[in-house]
Every structure is written in structure tokens, then in C-alpha cells.
Amino acid sequence: MLKLFYLPDTASLAPHIILNRLGQPFELVKMSKDDGSLHEQVYMELNPNRRVPMLVDADLVLFESAAICLHLADQDPDSGLMAPLGSKKRALAYKWLVFMTNSIQADMMLYFYKERFSNSAEGAEEIRTIAIERVSTFMSRLDDALGDGRPYLSGGQKTIVEDYLLMLGQEETLKSMAHLYALLCVLEDDPHVKATYEAEGLQALFSA
Ligand SMILES: N[C@@H](CCC(=O)N[C@@H](CS)C(=O)NCC(=O)O)C(=O)O
């Protein structure tokens, strides 16, 4: 059975939502930043980065949330979790997914873990301020793309890209980006998202 190691409201949220979408049984293992579980030998042997998410699928061990989302979508190619292989919509889905993981999420790490990027408190604070600005600019690229009236980033079909967006979009500040905010409201109003929020103990941020 698929096993997801997760922390509530973190980079494991999108994989968790997609597991719910697949509708197959899976096991959840809740980790903690405080109880040492990320640093336990048995976890570190599988995931030396000591982070979540991690997906264990028989003898396959995956870390990196985007890789896990893509692998899960591949479990059921007819599910519509991704556009058809080779299609323009699929290419757009790759573009937005990689943009989110490689640009937006990478810079979010700078403000969530600012103390890891500077040896001084002032330096860390400066990094945080710059990173917040950069993430906001990157988010506005998504808002701009949605400005042409398309319902979802890759076109007319909701894919794993939107689950990834919702995971990164847990920010009050996004309420000022009209197109993005409208999409985030739609995305939260989804039975699989609601089930995932409930399992992780999260409150709806946009659709409440
Ligand atoms: N790029 C990675 C980021 C993973 C990551 O940073 N996870 C955080 C939660 S959002 C974590 O496990 N933090 C614990 C730590 O770094 O101590 C991914 O998307 O999987």
C-alpha cells in the first residue's frame, strides 16, 4: 500500500490531496518537527534530507513533492489528473508545475527557513523580506496567466498543477490577486480537498 509521510499544511499537502483523488487505500504517517521523527535513523536512511513529503510505494521511495504528484498522476492515466501525454496542455502543466516548485517554492523556503540562509538575525530578516517580495512577483505571473479567462492554469482541465497551487497558495496576501484568489476559492470548494484539510486539521483559507 502507498504510504505518505507528511506534516500538516506543508509540502505534503498536494500529494495528500492527490492520494485522496485516486481513491485507493493509502497509509498516512504523521511526522513532527519537534519530536525528532524526521531525524530518526530509519527515516533518514530513506530520506536523508529529513523533510516531508516522502512517498513509499513498495520498494520505490520518493521525495520531492512535485515528483510524488507526477508519479501519483501516472498511477491512473485515465483519471484526468494530467492532460494527455504529448499534448500542449500537458506541456503547459509541466511549465507551471516546474515554475511553482523551482521558482515559487524555492523562494518560499527562504522565508520559512530564513535562519538557515544567514549567520546573522539581520541577514536572515533581509533575506525574508526579499523572498516575500519575489514570491509575490512570481505569484502575480500566475494571476496574469489566469487573466485571460482560462479556468485553470493549463486550460480547461483541473490537474495536479492546481493541487500544487493550492498547497503553495496558503497565503492571506493572495487575496489581493483577483484571478488567483477566484481560482483558490474554487479549488478549496472540492470534496477531496475538504477531506484532506479535515485529515490534516486545516481550516479553509479562501472559501470559508
Ligand atoms: N522541495 C521540497 C521541499 C520539502 C520541504 O522543505 N519540506 C518541509 C515542509 S514544507 C520540511 O520537511 N521541513 C522540515 C525541515 O526542513 O526541518 C519538496 O517539495 O518536497
UniProtKB/TrEMBL annotation:
InterPro entries with a match to the protein in the record: Glutathione-S-Trfase_C_sf, Glutathione_S-Trfase, Glutathione_S-Trfase_N, Thioredoxin-like_sf
Domain of life from the UniProt record: Bacteria
Entries under PROSITE patterns matching the protein: GST_NTER
MF term (GO), any: transferase activity
Alphabetized UniProt keyword annotations: Transferase
Domain GST N-terminal intervals: 1-80
CDD domains assigned: GST_N_Beta
Keyword Disulfide bond: no
Matches recorded under PANTHER family: GLUTATHIONE S-TRANSFERASE GSTA, GLUTATHIONE S-TRANSFERASE-RELATED
Protein name (database record): Glutathione S-transferase
Organism of derivation: Candidatus Terasakiella magnetica
